[in-house]
Amino acid sequence: MNKDQVKGVGEQVKGKVNEVVGKVTNNPGKELKGDLQQGAGKVQKAYGDAKEDAKDRAKHNAP
Q1: Is the pLDDT of residue 55 over 90?
Q2: 3-class SS of residue 1
Q3: Where is this region: Disordered (predicted)?
């Protein structure tokens, strides 16, 4: 697991917390912030996943 995967998951968790807090407190701005954080976290984790896949493929294809 690389740092992009870890940071991505962390952003998703923070985003979910903000989304729930926004819903509970009836704060649409906080809820939107949470949604955006979750989206950014998913993108960062996907980038980290792609880097890991590329590293694994290079390792397996090396002579």
Answers
A1: yes
A2: coil
A3: 24-63
